[in-house]
Amino acid sequence: MMSTLLDVQNLWVRFPTRNGVFDAVRGVSFTLGRERLGIVGESGSGKSMTGRAILRLIRPPGIVEADQVNLEGQDLMKLSEKDMRSVRGQRISMVMQDPKFSLNPVMTIGDQIIEAYRLHNSASKADAYNKSLEMLEAVSIRDAERVMRAYPHEMSGGMGQRIMIAMMLIPNPEILIADEPTSALDVSVQRQVLDIMDKLVKERGMGLIFISHDLNLVADFCDRVLIMYSGRIVEVCDADKLHEAKHPYTRGLLNSLPRLDAPRDRLEVLERDPQWSEAPSVSGSE
Amino acid sequence: MLTLGSIAVTLLGLLFITFVIGRVMPIDPVLAIVGERASQETYDTVYLQLGLDKPLMVQFFYYLWDVLHLDFGTSLLNARPVSEDIARVFPATLELATIGIIFGVVLGVPLGVLAAVRKGSWIDQIARVVALVGYSMPIFWLGLMGLLVFYGILGWVGGPGRVGIFYVDVVPSVTGLILVDSLLDGNWDVFKDAFSHIILPASLLGYYSLAYVSRMTRSFMLEQLSAEYITTARVKGMSEWDVVWKHAFKNIRVQLITVIALSYANLLEGSVLTEIIFSWPGIGSYITTALLSADMNAVLGGTVVVGLIFILLNILSDLLYKVFDPRAK
């Protein structure tokens, strides 16, 4: 068994509303090693919330509860907000969906990357600048010096996302949470961005949590997959065996995908069984 | 250049409107000068002198020519050139409005940011009440109460007027701004006296701009704080203070400039009520007095100056946009 980086036990995310408490994530448990762990599910299944809850980024009035969120022996749930800040970025980082919105529009790309580095490393500006250049080159950005001086609106989506990856990996974290990192990109550049991310994650021996609603992509790209439905994990399987999944929800999702090799006039509609959301969460621990 | 062109067109429009107002007013400009008992001969002479026999278009070009030479004609009330009067009253308003807007921005912006960051907290509630009072209280009432309490009862501030009676015309007028002139002259007593006179009306005007600025700041900040790049900044491990000021605040600067420029322009028009309550010889009370005595040259001159200020502030905020927003380049 591989070494565990992150051990999440019984994670809940709750939002108090006018009509009582809404549970977005309901008792999710899983572990992450130096692997690529996919989390799939439809909109509102709690997959993004799970990622943000690990970083404790759920803003009040939202509440995060867990028996433990153990990062190499340290329970993140017990950390003060100040200590949590040294975990964010430095040990666990996150790439979000759309670089158009996730980069600050009025700061140069260079300033944003340098800032990410200098928050956790007491490096001089010149060192941070050189390090940032290196990092941009590592994500295959050509003409990195020009890009450092540019603003986000001057970048294409694919470049923006590679810049995000550079920015999030520059403090050398152990875990990267990628929250739908390619959903906003053109299909033609999706693969390129994924390959760069994959290469860097592997080289650095990091753990990757890959959140997506794209089943084929996850099956292709990840080692292990958690399938979430209404805040719970309904099934856990190896990514290459995703197409043999047993849970009716997973089967339903798979069957509702159009396929080039087996064209159909009418795609199957997912029939939801209320029992799925009642069933206890499956553990995703190795 | 496009900007220069649009400024010229705006200016021309402004002058055209003031010209038309001057011509459609049912006030005979000749009678206003010569008086009702003048002979027909005098009347005709002045009529020709004013160029009123020429076609309207020609008159408009005469008017343009005069205005471009800063000649707004002669005031009927005191027979002095209107431009001289404006040069005297405008600095008084400028001084008041500038201190007012500084007050409004220095307090209003942080209050708005704080209210947004701590949305729903007691700070937000207090900011809301402060702004609501600012919006809804009539300024003459607040002004009179302020005078009563701080001048009449407590004696902390100076009363109406720009300086006390003993200090009038003590320092030579260089800029027309008494605070600056007294400093240039090195006369501390005048400076202190002038300051004690300006502080109450300026705070009052500042309070109104604070109400507006803080509410707008709050809503701009709320919009930015829910943006995804804010999450990015938090993911990087940034402190909340830096997230707010280094990331979110940088993105509201352009919008804030618009709000502040508008608010400043409002104050620079001269708030008539404040100027009257505090016997402040500013442009607001000047135009009002002129209007009430049908002194059209003074009214139109004042209107052109106020319009010019609006145009100038617009140019200034356009220039600042380009500094603060890379996308505007």
TrEMBL record, chain A:
GO MF annotation terms: ATP binding; ATP hydrolysis activity
InterPro entries (UniProt xref): AAA+_ATPase (IPR003593), ABC_Ni/Peptide_Import (IPR050388), ABC_transporter-like_ATP-bd (IPR003439), Oligopep_ABC_C (IPR013563), P-loop_NTPase (IPR027417)
Keyword flag ATP-binding: yes
Coiled-coil regions listed in the entry: none
GO CC entries: plasma membrane
Main location: membrane
Membrane topology listed for this record: Peripheral membrane protein
GO terms classed as biological process: peptide transport; transmembrane transport
Domain ABC transporter residue range list: 6-255
Annotated keywords: ATP-binding, Cell membrane, Membrane, Nucleotide-binding, Transport
SMART domains from the UniProt entry: AAA (SM00382)
Subcellular localization(s) per the UniProt record: Cell inner membrane
Family: Belongs to the ABC transporter superfamily.
Name the UniProt record assigns to this protein: Peptide/nickel transport system ATP-binding protein
